[in-house]
Amino acid sequence: MGKKGIFSLASILIIFGAIVSGCASGGPAPAPDTKSAAQGNGAGTAKPTKEATLKIGAAAVPHAEILNFVKPKLKEQGVNLEVVVYDDEGQLNPALKDKQIDANYFQHVPYLDSVKGEKGYDFAVTTKVHVEPIGFYSSKLKSKDEIKEGARIGIPNNPSNEYRALVLLQQQGLIKLKDGLTTYEATPKDIADNPKKLKFVEADSATLPRSLPDLEGAIINTNLVLEAKIDPKSALFREDSKSPYANVIVVRKGDETRDEVKKLDAALTTPEVKKFIEDKYGVAVVPAF
Fold first, then answer.
1. Assigned CATH for 135-237
2. Superfamily per CATH, domain 52-133+244-287
3. SS3 per residue for the chain
4. Can you give the pLDDT at residue 2?
5. Where is a lipid covalently linked (S-diacylglycerol cysteine) (predicted)?
6. Domain boundaries, given as residue ranges, for the chain
């Protein structure tokens, strides 16, 4: 073999040796893929919050509006609040009993007490939210002093609100009820003294705003006043803030311990909700917490 062949063979051996040496020494090992490892064994991955749905039936105003105000806050806490508005409030308790909804928000305790025995409701009250001071409204009169003898006055025909209306008239000195009425129930038959010989038209609460043109006045629940676009400040007189008729959250007995119900109660009784109620409704709706 000539010198040229020897030189070429030596060059090949040197290059091959360098390659082998490089493979043996390696160099710095690559950093472990910690992200992939974490994903593989589940470490370091935040577990998604399990969302619970709470379906609540409500009157349109102000109940559903207040519920929708707290809805985003509850969403942050893992509660999907589904608000179902019932035009016929008389269906809200049957819907709760039949498990069509998880809770309702439209009534006060005297009303619930007046119907639960007859209907067999096994319900629990979880929290008080607001009072809607019931008031006397008229499209004809400007003051209480204009109520004349024999005036036709509309009042709700359900037991608890009828009593409530008559008590308000008594507080204003227009009638006097019999002594010993302790069950939050009364009708015009329980009036002991009626100096102006007022005539009472007992009607479904929801029809009273529409009946004002045919009456000298009517005692109407504030939520119905708001729905009818009547200015609540136009009441000739109304209940004061000491009214026992706070609207409450009602659930089936046993459900008051559910986590999502507790979160709802807490969300509805915050300073933010109090301010929302006061700013939006003024005298028409009064926080009860």
1. 3.40.190.10
2. Periplasmic binding protein-like II (3.40.190.10)
3. CCHHHHHHHHHHHHHHHHHHHHHHHCCCCCCCCHHHHHHHHCCCCCCCCCCEEEEEEECHHHHHHHHHHHHHHHHHCCEEEEEEECCCHHHHHHHHHCCCCCEEEEEEHHHHHHHHHHHCCCEEEEEEEEECCCEEECCCCCCHHHCCCCCEEEEECCHHHHHHHHHHHHHCCCCEECCCCCCCCCCHHHEEECCCCCEEEEECHHHHHHHHHHCCEEEECHHHHHHCCCCHHHCCEECCCCCCCEEEEEEECCHHHCHHHHHHHHHHCCHHHHHHHHHHHHHHCEECC
4. 47
5. 23
6. 52-133+244-287, 135-237
